[in-house]
């Protein structure tokens, strides 16, 4: 009998945090002669499947890039459709999140979201806040440059207010001012749909992430595709600037 993909994953060496750029909804739909929103609609099914798969694996953090700061510049009809889909999905999914002990978090400039979406989100955050399993982080109206500028501005204000000494600013300080301050950096970043770029996603946090690209369009991405990415990740040697020999020695000692 052929070993299933999930059995090939070493559960003791899971990445703590996986971040995904869910790309290709529009092309998936266009290839089927459908409207781009049809693709986004089907993309939600992949979100459900991957969130469920991540919780089953016992992953600690999953960040999903759902809407970028730059995506506001898309045609108004698409943006409005995405916002409605977002609200509707959140409303429907909260009971499932609670059932699976999943806590929802949001990163991004949520003030840009329409009021009805902000309210729905706030409620979902509150209703899942007691959960202790998977942390599901939705990046909404998020971009890394927005986040970094924001962090620098806030640090500047705290320096001015005398709360921090500029000479003491280090990597930990900056980390605390990012929207991801409570989360470890992603160890694996997956992008679907064959684009080999980061598109303003977690530029600082991905410094040492392993990058995994697949041609699969997001609406076709399922648990098995996630398992494949994790297996690929587990086959890599993460060196963090050191030599391969040093890493091998450290692994032997551990
Ligand atoms: C990703 O799919 C979803 C969002 C950016 C909201 P796209 O809508 O970017 O799909 P493509 O890249 O045009 O195929
Ligand atoms: C990145 O995808 C943003 C999300 C998946 C939410 P885009 O489709 O917007 O990125 P580009 O435009 O191809 O770089
Ligand atoms: Mg795209």
TrEMBL record:
* Name used for this protein in its record: Isoprenyl transferase
Q: Which PANTHER family match?
A: DEHYDRODOLICHYL DIPHOSPHATE SYNTHASE 2, DEHYDRODOLICHYL DIPHOSPHATE SYNTHASE FAMILY MEMBER
EC code(s) of this entry:
2.5.1.-
**Where along the chain is substrate bound?**
24-28, 36, 40, 68-70, 72, 74, 191, 197-199
| Obligatory cofactor(s) | Mg(2+)
Q: Which family does it belong to?
A: Belongs to the UPP synthase family.
Q: What does this protein do?
A: Catalyzes the condensation of isopentenyl diphosphate (IPP) with allylic pyrophosphates generating different type of terpenoids.
Identify the catalytic residues. Answer: 23, 71 (proton acceptor)
Tell me which UniProt keywords the record has, alphabetically. Answer: Magnesium, Metal-binding, Transferase
Where on this chain does Mg(2+) bind?
23, 210
**NCBIfam families per the UniProt record, alphabetical:** PRK14830.1, uppS
The record's remark on the cofactor is: Binds 2 magnesium ions per subunit.
GO MF annotation list? transferase activity
**InterPro entries, alphabetically?**
UPP_synth-like, UPP_synth-like_CS, UPP_synth-like_sf
> Which SUPFAM superfamilies does the entry mention?
Undecaprenyl diphosphate synthase (SSF64005)
Report quaternary structure and partners.
Answer: Homodimer.
